[in-house]
Amino acid sequence: MKFRTFAAFVGPSLLLMMIFIAAPLVSVLWQSFHLTQNVFETVETERCTPGFPNAVCETITVDRPVLDENGEIQTVTSFVGWQSYSRVLDPDALGAAISSGDWWSILNIDFWGALRFTLTFTLVTLPLVIGVGLLIAITVNNAVKTIRGPAIFISLLPFIITPVIGALSIRWLFVGDGILTALMESWSGQDIAMFAQGWTIELLMMFYRVWHVAPFAFVIFYAGLQTVNMDTLESAIIDGASRFERLRYVIVPHLMPLIVFIALIHLMDSYRVFEEVIGFRSEAHRISLQWLTFDYLTPDDSGNRSVSRASASSMLTMVGIVILLVPLLRRTWRDHKGS
Amino acid sequence: MSSIPRAMQQPLGLKFASYGFLAFWCLIAAFPIFWVAVMSVKTPVDAFASSPLDVVFGPRTLGNGDGMSVFSILLLLTLLVLTYRVGARHLGKWVEQFSPPGLVIIGWIIGSIIFAIGAAFLMFGIYPFVVDLIDPILGPLGRPVLGLTTEHYQAVWVDNEFYTNFLNSMLVTAGVVTISLTVGTLAGYGLARSGSNLAFWLLIMALIFRALPHSVLVTGYLPAFINSAEFLEPILGESAPTLYGQPWAVIVVLVSINQPFTIWMLRSFFQNIPSELDEAARVDGCSHFGAFRRVIMPVMWPGVITTGLFSFLLAYNDYLVTALLLDQQNQTMVPAITGYFNRETTTTDQVEAVAAAVSIIAPLFLLVMVFQRQIVSGLTAGAVKG
């Protein structure tokens, strides 16, 4: 295919990606070093209150926003260096926490707490998703043909359901005296509140994520199981391999590329955990990196969005995903050079 | 069973464990969704009762005079099974039978819409009518035994005008699916047929873009979108629009965010189409575009339908982009639901939020029913070969 034809085919898609993915990255980088503020002026005014015999007057200074000729508030954008980053990272509080030896208080700073949660969430759910997905795939593959269709249908439901709604539907089972909380209370005889402390919410969020993604892993493993080489399996039996050994030495190596694929996708997706925070309304206890940026971008009570801090936290989030992806990219590069 | 060699046959205990786990998983997978659907048709007291039996049978809902008889339950179950069978088994065949060649995708769209409207008509139009007609005749079988009320759905859809959010969702979703497939098929085909280094690097770049958190990108758009009227003015003149709050701007953003995934997926589909096909067309004197249009387009629909489904899910399920880039007037359904739980003060509000949530996932339910096979084959084709 000639370059011109290739460019014509790929052009529209590439243009969209450049304008709406690459360009925003550059602008986020720029925004993270700049700060846009309203221009204020200090004016002296005389304020009088009625009095007798003369009005009581005092001179006060007030700060008020400067208006331009259209009557809108003037803004000025200035270079602020690393200021937005330091407001996100909060090195003073970090230093104080480290020097006092109170490591847990680091997690009270929004960014570090969010980073801790995001990483724990990603790394804990990863093996669970792969394990549960593989288990479902093997059991569905093991079942008789007639129940496979309905089983796949039911299994797909958690995967396609809107994430916010999925999180909400699990929340409603536990919130207050929801039926599952009531059930646990009658078992344990204690009063249980699932949404009163951070770690129970965190467990529910992880449970939700595994529930939501395991079907995806299942479908892919299920397809992989259809192509397992029967001859290899039979020769393993002849050699006296037990069921577990056959799974360990024949089936899992066959599925290895798929396991890597799922691990990669899951790494990307769970690093940007966000909908769980909305659905479980955990923002008082647990927040994620992406939610932190979202929160900066949401207008506060006076209608301002802290774009600079959002940009700084975006850049830091991005650095994180690049670090996670570097080993993979190096491997691809080596494979490409080798081929 | 005879086809399985004796040595591979499983002992009873293992079989039992295997089926047991499968049943357990299906229970976990379906239960939250089933339970939410049950809650949405009860009065608040029943919906949040701590005894599960009260939630299922709804004594207080029944006490208010809203309920279903044994007959109507059986009728409803029959209708649901029938809908599932038609959707899962027959719809695909009918579409392929009746749609003219080359227009299969339009056939699918029309078929799905007719199916959805038909299902809605059956459930909300014919079913209550038949039940009202027959229940009084049946005596004990016609007496209500199960509490059920649709008042929360009425409150959500009619009083709170949820249909405007529904229409916005449909607009955004339809736009995203159409544009991202048009742009994506071209790029996917180009990438699949070009073995050059450039194509490789484009795919790697797309992979990195795929990994970016969406909030990073939205941080880039938001200030630009709010002030777009100012800096588009030199180009577009007085009529320069403010992009913030415009559904079509959100469509373009979602299409772009979705492009990396779309081109990866479509590329692996195109690689499965033998390149001898378009080479033959080229030998016969077609240009590349001619070959694409005449030879590839007729055979590419399975891949396009599957990729379209995933674009649909992305646009329909999105919360972050639509919540930040659209204002209150043209909000889509998923962010709109947070409005319910921000004012979730009374239990009635809570059940209305549940009803809104069920309204959002109902179309997805029909979608899996119809496209189950395409979703499975699409995921596997994309993953196993790519």
UniProtKB/TrEMBL annotation, chain A:
<comment type="similarity">
    <text>Belongs to the binding-protein-dependent transport system permease family.</text>
</comment>
<keyword id="KW-1003">Cell membrane</keyword>
<dbReference type="GO" id="GO:0005886">
    <property type="term" value="C:plasma membrane"/>
</dbReference>
<keyword id="KW-0813">Transport</keyword>
<keyword id="KW-0472">Membrane</keyword>
<dbReference type="InterPro" id="IPR000515">
    <property type="entry name" value="MetI-like"/>
</dbReference>
<keyword id="KW-1133">Transmembrane helix</keyword>
<feature type="transmembrane region" description="Helical">
    <location>
        <begin position="117"/>
        <end position="140"/>
    </location>
</feature>
<feature type="transmembrane region" description="Helical">
    <location>
        <begin position="249"/>
        <end position="268"/>
    </location>
</feature>
<feature type="transmembrane region" description="Helical">
    <location>
        <begin position="210"/>
        <end position="228"/>
    </location>
</feature>
<dbReference type="InterPro" id="IPR051393">
    <property type="entry name" value="ABC_transporter_permease"/>
</dbReference>
<dbReference type="GO" id="GO:0055085">
    <property type="term" value="P:transmembrane transport"/>
</dbReference>
<dbReference type="Pfam" id="PF00528">
    <property type="entry name" value="BPD_transp_1"/>
</dbReference>
<keyword id="KW-0812">Transmembrane</keyword>
<feature type="transmembrane region" description="Helical">
    <location>
        <begin position="152"/>
        <end position="174"/>
    </location>
</feature>
<dbReference type="InterPro" id="IPR035906">
    <property type="entry name" value="MetI-like_sf"/>
</dbReference>
<feature type="domain" description="ABC transmembrane type-1">
    <location>
        <begin position="115"/>
        <end position="328"/>
    </location>
</feature>
<protein>
    <submittedName>
        <fullName>L-arabinose transport system permease protein AraP</fullName>
    </submittedName>
</protein>
<feature type="transmembrane region" description="Helical">
    <location>
        <begin position="310"/>
        <end position="329"/>
    </location>
</feature>
<feature type="transmembrane region" description="Helical">
    <location>
        <begin position="7"/>
        <end position="30"/>
    </location>
</feature>
From TrEMBL, chain B:
<keyword id="KW-1003">Cell membrane</keyword>
<comment type="similarity">
    <text>Belongs to the binding-protein-dependent transport system permease family.</text>
</comment>
<feature type="transmembrane region" description="Helical">
    <location>
        <begin position="246"/>
        <end position="266"/>
    </location>
</feature>
<feature type="domain" description="ABC transmembrane type-1">
    <location>
        <begin position="166"/>
        <end position="371"/>
    </location>
</feature>
<feature type="transmembrane region" description="Helical">
    <location>
        <begin position="166"/>
        <end position="191"/>
    </location>
</feature>
<feature type="transmembrane region" description="Helical">
    <location>
        <begin position="295"/>
        <end position="316"/>
    </location>
</feature>
<keyword id="KW-0472">Membrane</keyword>
<feature type="transmembrane region" description="Helical">
    <location>
        <begin position="353"/>
        <end position="371"/>
    </location>
</feature>
<dbReference type="InterPro" id="IPR035906">
    <property type="entry name" value="MetI-like_sf"/>
</dbReference>
<protein>
    <submittedName>
        <fullName>Trehalose transport system permease protein SugB</fullName>
    </submittedName>
</protein>
<feature type="transmembrane region" description="Helical">
    <location>
        <begin position="61"/>
        <end position="82"/>
    </location>
</feature>
<dbReference type="GO" id="GO:0005886">
    <property type="term" value="C:plasma membrane"/>
</dbReference>
<keyword id="KW-1133">Transmembrane helix</keyword>
<feature type="transmembrane region" description="Helical">
    <location>
        <begin position="103"/>
        <end position="130"/>
    </location>
</feature>
<feature type="transmembrane region" description="Helical">
    <location>
        <begin position="198"/>
        <end position="226"/>
    </location>
</feature>
<dbReference type="Pfam" id="PF00528">
    <property type="entry name" value="BPD_transp_1"/>
</dbReference>
<keyword id="KW-0812">Transmembrane</keyword>
<dbReference type="InterPro" id="IPR000515">
    <property type="entry name" value="MetI-like"/>
</dbReference>
<keyword id="KW-0813">Transport</keyword>
<dbReference type="GO" id="GO:0055085">
    <property type="term" value="P:transmembrane transport"/>
</dbReference>
<feature type="transmembrane region" description="Helical">
    <location>
        <begin position="21"/>
        <end position="41"/>
    </location>
</feature>
